[in-house]
Amino acid sequence: MVLEVKELKRFIKMEKIIKNWKKEIENDKIPPEPFKPEIIEIDGKYYLVFSTTDKQTGVDHYEISETKNKNKENWQKEENPYLLTDQSLKSFIKVKAVDKARNERIETIYPSQITLKIRMWQIILVSVLFFAILTLLYLWLRKFIKSQKP
After folding, report:
1. Helices and strands counted in the chain (H then E)
2. CB 73 within 8 A of CB 104
3. Cα separations in angstroms, 137 against 90, 123, 126
4. What predicted TM-score, i.e. pTM, was given to this entire model?
5. What is the pLDDT of residues 8-63, one digit of tens each?
6. What is the pLDDT of residue 111?
7. Domain ranges of the chain
8. Cα 56 from chain centroid?
9. How far is the C-alpha of 60 from the C-alpha of 52, rounded, in Å?
10. Domain 30-109 is of which CATH architecture?
11. Is the pLDDT of residue 1 over 70?
12. Rounded distance between C-alpha atoms, residue 86 and residue 84, angstroms
């Protein structure tokens, strides 16, 4: 009999917790916080990394859409980090964060943002190489001119 009373109290306590959680979910009208998905390169492959928080019920899951057409969406539930299907980085990449109350926040990476970031590194690298070559050429010419003087 004592065991049954303890189990009944535990059941009532769990029922209250569930009821409170349901109210919390019903009252959650705020989507997850804004976030910024990033593309990183690991071993020659591009991955998408993303993370956000939800102040009320918490983030339930993430969905990814990779399409060449910005008006088309192909949502799939995915984990972080996500290996990009389009390794040429020419797709619109959308990340949807869904909280436990099913509120959503969608962030988008446009192909131009990706190529601009890659081009920036290429420009920096070419600039550094160009100035290194100019410096070496200057030093060589200076040495050459000094060796020509009697």
Report:
1. 2, 7
2. no
3. 39, 21, 16
4. 0.64
5. 677 777 777 777 767 777 777 889 999 999 999 889 899 999 999 998 888 999 99
6. 84
7. 30-109, 111-150
8. 22
9. 11
10. Sandwich (2.60)
11. no
12. 5
